[in-house]
């Protein structure tokens, strides 16, 4: 072993052994590295998504200086540790490797900690939690290597909370509120001028952003971030501070002058819009503008805020009202969700992301938005989080959305923004070339240096990440103060312009639907028989081939498919019904045939929401998929069910890395839990087999319940402990003649009256309140009159006695399916007729089916196949009921049918059903006798052990419902 002066081992050798010990014995992934030009290597560790550097030295001052520089120079480290080898005289050069490691293992060190965020609160946090932490002059003294592991873990815990960042965000929010308040009494033309600057969409006028508070809030954010950006780059050009400009000219004119001076060095797109906004402001806003400038300067000085995507987080807090977010620019991805999704993308790339930051932003990242305002925010944000002062070009585009009517335009009419790329990419390029020379700001390339370029994107991408607009094609009922329904593109005020865009959109959608349908037909043989029937459109299953209800989100998924290269990766935030929705079926087939679906992430966090986007409570999903045509049977998809969503960026990164590490550590396990997440590895064969509904894999937050129910619907096994019985399970479609009309047809066909009249001859069950669903047996409560001629035939053909709900709120339900002694139609239930020849047997079979669907096994089957809208509020469309695995009552012998029908008669109006919601039934155990009767009728001998297992099943299901329904679990 080589020696240093005084006979000590070289520091390089010591660092190698420290890295070995930290990795082998303490669980940190560490390695010694020698940065270019350095005489000794530092120790770099990667742990739970955090980059850590350890600078050790025989000289305390050298260790501290090197560690501090690692943070101050913004080299991408989250934590830097100075490690003083104060017992270095013991590390003699004649020691062998094992002897040196043993000596280091027993040594004592002094340690100092550095992070990008303020130190004082972090140090206090650590000293309160680590009993061995003794602090002296900023150093933890006389610690061993195990302390470094504790130091790292506690530092990460503190950083994950991001209390400092949240504090500054709240300060910014207060500043924006003050800015809005200062302008709220201004005449309408003030915010109208600002609105015209922010929302420069030619040929259109938006509806919902015509709200002064929203417009002023967004203007304030533009001022704040432009101030931050100016301070971030001014030193490169020798410009004075913003404070100097403000002292000389006042807040409004001072910021204008500063930004105009910056414009001499370009940066047009980053600041020009803010100059325009400032020119509209009255003197009364000076104080509020000063506050925003001061905040901007503060943020620019706190580099750790910029590294944490601070600008993006503030942006998400104050974007426009919910209708605007939903109808136009989509919901904005919650920041922790965005980091969780993107971490799944770059994990294991094997590259240093900090080293390629400039090249990545200038040559690798492309962004497209229909709002000039959003493009400006994106451009500023990328510049702030990139390598300081090095990013001079960005590929962020504001694309045209609206009605193009300029006389000299090469193409006229409606333009769908980035969806026009599905029409004709060259045509888009021609329009953009015209716009650069003629129509200013309608479509422009956002360059930090301000130089406009040609709108051009690569023919293929390695990675596409998107939270697209996914407004349903049927639109919303809000009409912004007007009666009636506004549909797709409901944010556009002019109805004629809206209809023109809708027509263009429908043409695009039809072509996409045709492609997806052809893809499914070409891949038909890959799927099981029932899926092949769907693809062929048999037995009224053609609803699965209609993408109309999927809205814009599916078209953007297809857009990504068109531009992703073979082997590339797409990552999306989409509505959760991507996994099980009827209109999303062809999208699932596309993902199953043309991609390796790698990750699917959902939330079962009822407290923090089932969503991943700001401004919505609806259930969503994150997906990551790799483009490939050829597949291996060994492929697997990792479904991740978050029992609690991460609250901060760093918590999301930490969770993603915990899951990735656990996937390696639990390589042989199909199911496992890690932290607040449940992980389910799904084999490709099972993914393909269940392409009608991937929601089954994450329908329940309990792994055991998922396994139990999948065994029931796939294999027909009812199991209670060691006792099990095989029962015939089949899709409902195989045992029915037809399934009745939906609620839209019901209202289109019939007039309803609650009082009997001779001209209202038809009996119906109207409404679906709790009183209607409190027992398994029901009777008509209203009368119907045909509105149209086909209503008479519909009633004759579709009225039935078995009633299946089209929607369920699981935390208030008493029963699921109903039985009516008189055939009826309903607006809330689908009427079903069974494929049974004998009328006497039909009544037995109908009652047996209703009883099954209200048994614990039927309820689990419905729950795992539901279409989730928002937590426990779920839907089941007719097509989904057709595919629901149910007890095949037509295959049962007459004795078993009679046994089940008699059990139905005993329990149809039982007090435990009438008086208790489903969760209460589980708690009281009142339904034990119902489920015991079902099991006995199907051939199981139910004794005390089986009853205990049944009670346990109730607890599991009840707790799952509570977790999803904002109730306290027992």
Class inferred from helices and paired strands: alpha+beta
* Number of helical stretches of at least 4 residues: 36
Can you give the helix content as a percent range? 40-55%
Oligomer: single chain
Per DSSP E runs of 2 or more residues, the count of β-strands stands at: 36
Q: Which outline best applies?
A: globular
What is Rg?
Answer: 32 Å
Low-confidence stretches: 1-5, 320-332, 346-354, 429-453, 472-485
What is the total number of structural domains? 4
| pLDDT averaged over residues | 83
Q: State the major sheet.
A: 8 strands, mixed
| Distance from first to last alpha carbon | 62 Å
DSSP strand (E) fraction? 15-25%
What does this protein structure show overall?
The chain has 970 residues and is α+β, with helices and mostly antiparallel strands. The protein folds into 4 domains: 5-161, Roll (Diaminopimelate Epimerase, Chain A, domain 1), CATH 3.10.310; 165-329 and 370-457, no CATH class; 495-698, no CATH class; 729-964. 44% of the residues lie in helices and 18% in strands. It contains 36 helices and 36 strands. The strands form 9 sheets. Strands 25, 26, 27, 28, 29, 30, 32 and 33 form an 8-stranded mixed sheet that branches. Helix 18 links the parallel strand 9 and strand 10 (395-398). Helix 6 (163-183) packs antiparallel against helix 12 (286-301), helix 6 crosses helix 14 (310-318) and helix 7 packs across helix 8. The longest helix is centred in the middle third of the chain and has 28 residues, at 495-522. It is globular and about 95 Å long. Residues 1-5, 320-332, 346-354, 429-453 and 472-485 have low confidence and may be disordered.
């Amino acid at each position: 072993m080589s020696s240093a002066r005084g006979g000590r081992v070289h520091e390089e050798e010591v660092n190698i052994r420290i890295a070995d010990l930290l990795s082998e014995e303490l669980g940190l992934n560490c390695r010694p590295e020698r940065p270019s030009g350095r005489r000794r290597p530092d120790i770099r560790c990667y742990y739970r998504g955090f980059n850590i550097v350890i600078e050790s030295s025989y000289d305390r001052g050298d260790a501290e200086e090197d560690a501090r520089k690692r943070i101050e120079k913004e080299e991408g480290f989250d934590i830097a540790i100075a490690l003083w080898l104060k017992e270095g005289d013991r590390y003699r050069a004649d020691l062998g490797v094992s002897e040196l490691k043993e000596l280091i293992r027993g040594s004592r060190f002094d340690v100092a900690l550095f992070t990008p965020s303020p130190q004082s609160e972090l140090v206090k946090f650590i000293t309160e939690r680590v009993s061995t932490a003794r602090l002296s002059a900023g150093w933890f003294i006389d610690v061993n290597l195990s302390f470094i592991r504790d130091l790292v873990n506690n530092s990460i815990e503190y950083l994950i909370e991001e209390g400092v960042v949240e504090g500054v965000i709240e300060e910014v929010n207060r500043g924006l509120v003050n800015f809005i308040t200062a302008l709220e009494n201004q005449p309408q033309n003030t915010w109208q001028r600002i609105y015209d600057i922010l929302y420069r969409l030619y040929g259109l006028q938006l509806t919902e952003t015509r709200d002064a508070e929203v417009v002023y809030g967004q203007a304030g954010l533009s001022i704040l971030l432009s101030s931050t950006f100016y301070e971030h780059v001014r030193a490169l050009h020798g410009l004075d501070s913003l404070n100097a400009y403000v002292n000389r000219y006042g807040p409004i004119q001072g910021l204008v002058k500063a930004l105009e001076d910056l414009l001499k060095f370009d940066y047009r797109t980053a600041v020009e819009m803010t100059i325009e906004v400032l020119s509209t402001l009255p003197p009364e806003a000076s104080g509020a503008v000063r506050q925003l400038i001061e905040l901007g300067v503060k943020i620019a000085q706190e580099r750790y805020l910029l590294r944490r995507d601070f600008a993006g987080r503030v942006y998400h807090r104050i974007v426009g009202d919910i209708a605007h977010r939903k109808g136009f620019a989509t919901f904005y991805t919650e920041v922790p969700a965005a980091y969780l999704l993107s971490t799944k993308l770059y994990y294991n790339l094997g590259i240093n992301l900090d080293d390629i930051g400039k090249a990545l932003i200038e040559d690798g990242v492309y962004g497209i938005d229909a709002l000039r305002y959003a493009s400006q925010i994106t451009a500023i944000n990328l510049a702030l989080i990139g390598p300081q002062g090095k990013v001079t070009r960005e590929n962020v585009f504001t694309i045209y959305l609206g009605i193009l009517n300029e006389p000299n335009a090469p193409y006229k009419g409606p333009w769908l923004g980035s969806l026009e790329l599905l029409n004709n990419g060259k045509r888009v390029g021609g329009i953009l070339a015209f716009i650069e020379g003629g129509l200013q700001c309608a479509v422009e390339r956002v360059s930090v240096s301000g130089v406009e370029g040609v709108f051009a994107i690569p023919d293929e991408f390695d990675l596409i990440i998107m939270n697209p607009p996914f407004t349903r094609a049927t639109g919303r009922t809000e009409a912004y103060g007007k009666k009636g329904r506004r549909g797709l593109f409901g944010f556009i005020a002019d109805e004629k312009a809206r209809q023109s865009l809708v027509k263009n959109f429908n043409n695009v959608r039809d072509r996409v639907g045709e492609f997806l349908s052809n893809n499914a037909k070409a891949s038909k043989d890959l799927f099981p028989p029932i899926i092949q029937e769907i693809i062929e459109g048999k037995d009224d299953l053609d609803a699965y081939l209609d993408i109309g209800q999927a809205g814009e989100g599916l078209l953007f998924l297809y857009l990504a498919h068109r531009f992703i290269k073979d082997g590339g990766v797409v990552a999306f935030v989409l509505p959760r019904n991507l996994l099980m929705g009827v209109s999303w079926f062809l999208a699932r087939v596309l993902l199953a045939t043309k991609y390796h679906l790698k990750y699917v992430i959902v939330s079962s966090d009822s407290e923090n929401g089932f969503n991943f986007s700001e401004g919505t409570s609806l259930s969503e999903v994150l997906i990551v998929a790799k483009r490939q045509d050829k597949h291996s049977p060994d492929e697997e998809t990792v479904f991740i069910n978050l029992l609690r969503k991460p609250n901060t960026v760093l918590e999301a990164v930490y969770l993603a890395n915990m899951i990735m590490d656990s996937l390696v550590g639990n390589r042989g396990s199909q199911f496992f839990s890690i932290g607040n997440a449940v992980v389910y590895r799904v084999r490709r064969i099972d993914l393909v087999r269940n392409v009608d509904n991937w929601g089954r894999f994450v329908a329940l937050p309990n792994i055991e319940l998922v396994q139990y129910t999948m065994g029931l619907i796939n294999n027909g096994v009812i199991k209670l402990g060691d006792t099990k019985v095989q029962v015939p399970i089949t899709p409902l479609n195989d045992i029915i003649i037809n399934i009745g009309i939906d609620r839209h047809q019901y209202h289109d066909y019939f007039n309803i009256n609650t009082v009997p009249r001779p001209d209202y001859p038809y009996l119906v069950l109207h409404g679906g309140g709790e009183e209607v669903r409190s027992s398994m047996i029901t009777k008509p409560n209203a009368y119907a009159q045909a509105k149209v001629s086909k209503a008479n035939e519909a009633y004759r053909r579709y009225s039935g006695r078995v009633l299946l709900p089209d929607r369920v709120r699981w935390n208030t339900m008493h029963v699921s399916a109903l039985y009516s002694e008189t055939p009826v139609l309903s607006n809330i239930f689908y009427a079903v007729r069974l494929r049974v020849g004998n009328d006497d047997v039909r009544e037995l079979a109908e009652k047996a089916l209703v009883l099954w669907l209200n048994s614990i096994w039927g309820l689990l089957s419905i729950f795992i196949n539901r279409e989730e809208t928002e937590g426990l509020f779920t839907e089941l469309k007719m097509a989904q009921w057709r595919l629901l695995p149910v007890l095949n009552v037509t295959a049962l012998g007459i004795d078993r049918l009679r046994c089940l029908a008699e059990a139905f008669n005993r329990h149809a109006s039982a007090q435990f059903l009438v008086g208790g919601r489903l969760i209460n039934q589980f708690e009281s155990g009142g339904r034990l006798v119902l489920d015991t009767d079902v099991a006995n009728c199907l051939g199981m001998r139910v004794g005390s052990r089986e009853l205990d297992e049944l009670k346990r099943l109730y607890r599991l299901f009840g707790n799952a419902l509570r977790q999803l329904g904002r109730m306290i679990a027992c």
